[in-house]
Amino acid sequence: RLTSFGAFISFPGLFSALAPLEMLSDRYVSAPEDLLQLDQTVVAHVLSVDELADGRKIRVSLKHSVAEVSATQCLSPADFLLDYFGELEGAAGSAELGEIGRRTTVKVKQKQPYGVLVTLAGELGAISADASGFITTDQAKDHLDECKEGTVLPACVLDVDPEKNIVDYSLRSALTTDSAASAVSAKKSKTTKRRGGKDAPDIRQALADALRKQHDTPVVVEVVKEDYLVLSLPAFDNAIAFAATKSYNDRSKPFMRFKVGQRLSGTLVRVEANKRTLVMLQAGSDVATAPKQVADGGSAGKRAVKEPVDRSISFFEDYQPGRVTQAKVMSIKGTQANLDLAANVKGRLHITELVDGPLKTLVKSPVEAFAAAGVRTGDTIEVKVLGWHDAKVYKFLAITHRTSPLKTVIETTIRPSKLAASNEADGSAKSLSWKNVEPGRVLHGFVKGIQEASDYEGATVQVSLGLSLVGHLPLLAATSSYAVATHPARHFFPGSSIEVQVSSVDKKHRVVHLAPHGQYIAGVDRPTLSVDQLVPGTRVIASVANITPAVMFTHFYAASSLADDSVGPQVLRIQGKVDAFDAVDVLSENPFAEFKKGQLLEAVVLQGASGTDPAAMKIRLSLRPSVLSPDAVSSKT
Q: From 343's CA, which of 109, 175, 238, 291 has a CA 20 to 30 Å away?
């Protein structure tokens, strides 16, 4: 069974195991269906076995680096390759397959946007003259201008389908002429060249020697097909060979993993007459890399970095999670510092990754917060890599995801506890999200800003809690001061440290609601109003929710209880009601004329809460000046 979180694998004996999504492949996989098919036989490595009350829970890995075929003691890595081509070709092969790699001439029949249709003009002993010939655009690009109807051109046979009588050709000069740079062709005599399109005996012998010695050899991708690759072998006068694009654990389409011209490395596994020459690609070769990005010294498939700040870094892949490296601070915007790890590698340091606890000093901007942690624009700082994410959507990527470095941002941290930890990846930062943060959890964050009130929700203090997690603290739950509530920007400075508790999580709308906790925030008194204190005479700050001719409805916030401060109070939204008589001292035809929806008001409780359900509570409030400030009114009178 295939699910969004992994694949269920069945074993002999009527028991099954789960291969989680992150354990399906060494490269990035967005969905199991991209890699696997139902009823597919796979090689699995058991990670854990847990005996539970309701049965046995088994976790396995299908990664090539973990689930090695050779470890089964009944299969070898080449078995899949040999079995697949054995079924394709039959036990004896065919004479037509013996013509692969031969050089001949073809006549252009028709030129199409996707390639060139040709017929055989020269002689190929086992291939009939009426065989349909095709040349892909990639294989014809050296001679596209010459591909006019009736033109005869030199060609090389890349592949043959005997059943369908179809031949794939190439017009590439490297394949249609002898290679002067070939190590083998440099030694051969005039009689050993592939004159008349025949393979030289020493080429065949050299291939047999390489097969016997199991030496790695470079290969170049010539054609990418659904089930296999057509390759050329530069070290053997560009002889043609084949490799499978699929394996026991991978049935994904090859067109995003391989590209024409890609240089890989492999080992010969079969050299036989009238059959395709087969190559087993090295592990990690199933990642498409442009030829110009391939370097010597075992760096095939890696992406080179330019002018790295840390001189020990050579490739983009060196920035593994857990790696401590250096970066230059280019700018500080909002709640993040933008970093350059190299000329072509960008990084980010989020404000929540500066310190382990609250900042020691009071700050009034994110720039001051970063400065308090020792991070300033132009500085070169030591950072630890947390992971990679997509620059546009902030989605964390698998370390093998083949996104351009220019489209990827390296997430970093300078928190002392993480810098001092072992170099293993710390996934705690990127795991904190609305999906797994639980109500009651106490968190340390930083003020991001004030979100203005809308028709659906009152104003909130936005708090950065993690790399991509922002919580919302209702403004009326954030303070019991009317002066602070009416001018929050003067007190809740962006970048300020703040301690909060998760009050609730709205998973439908992906919103995390917060409540004040502990030391809270410098310069703002922590609200202490609880439901138990909603008795006549208590002052509250309320927001106008709705106005009718006779009644004005408001809402305010109070804690469910302050008795157990170890877990922090749960903040509840309470409804308040103001009758026309309680709005003003002098009753008029329209006592609510001076009020509007969303307005913040100071009010006094006239009648306390009845019941324990906050949704059912309706507290009667008064806005009359004589009730709010009786002494001042008496003095004026």
A: 291
Task: Note whether 330 and 339 are within 8 A (CB).
Answer: yes
- Check residue 370 and give left, alpha or beta (phi > 0: left; psi -120 to 50: alpha): alpha
302: confidence class by pLDDT, cuts 50, 70, 90: low
CA distance 490 to 202: 84
What DSSP character marks residue 355?
-
* Reduced 3-state DSSP string for 105-118: EEEEEEEECCEEEE
Length of the chain: 637
pLDDT digits 0-9 by tens, 244-262: 887 777 767 787 778 888 8
Please say whether the beta carbons of 396 and 415 come within 8 A. Answer: no
Q: How confident is the model at residue 222, as a pLDDT?
A: 94
> How far, in Å, are 282, 583, 606, 623, 631 from residue 634 at the CA level?
92, 18, 20, 16, 5
292, pLDDT greater than 90: no
- Structure confidence at residue 479 (pLDDT): 87
Helices (DSSP H) in 479-587: which residue ranges? 482-486
**Burial of residue 88 (number of CB atoms within 10 Å: 0-12, 13-18, 19+):** middle
Integer angstrom CA distances of residue 95 from 92, 100, 124: 9, 10, 11
For the beta carbon of residue 621, count every other beta carbon within 10 angstroms: 27
DSSP 521: B
- Full-model pTM: 0.51
Which residues have C-beta within 8 Å of that of residue 227, sequence separation ≥ 6? Answer: 84, 244, 245, 246
Place of tokens 């252009």: 108
pLDDT digits (tens, 9 = 90+) for 558-593: 877 544 444 445 778 888 999 999 999 888 888 999
Highest average pLDDT, of 283-287, 488-492, 525-529, comes from 488-492
87 vs 129, which has greater pLDDT? 129
For residue 416, the tally of other CB atoms under 10 A from its CB is: 13
Instruction: Give the per-residue pLDDT at 184.
Output: 41
10 Å Cβ neighbour count for 94? 15
How far apart are the C-alpha atoms of 306 and 274, rounded to whole Å? Answer: 48
Amino acid at 592: F
Question: What gap in Å lies between CA 395 and CA 397, rounded to an integer?
Answer: 6
Determine the 3-state secondary structure of 152 from DSSP: strand
- Residue 563: phi and psi, rounded to 5, are -65, -45
Residues 266, 78 contacting (CB under 8 angstroms): no
Question: Would you give the end-to-end CA distance of the chain in angstroms?
Answer: 82
- Work out the average pLDDT over 89-104: 85
In this predicted structure, the answer to whether residue 206 has a pLDDT above a threshold of 60 is yes
What is the DSSP code (8-state) at residue 504? E
Contact between 58 and 15 (Cβ < 8 Å): yes
CA distances from 449 to 56, 279, 443 (A): 49, 59, 17
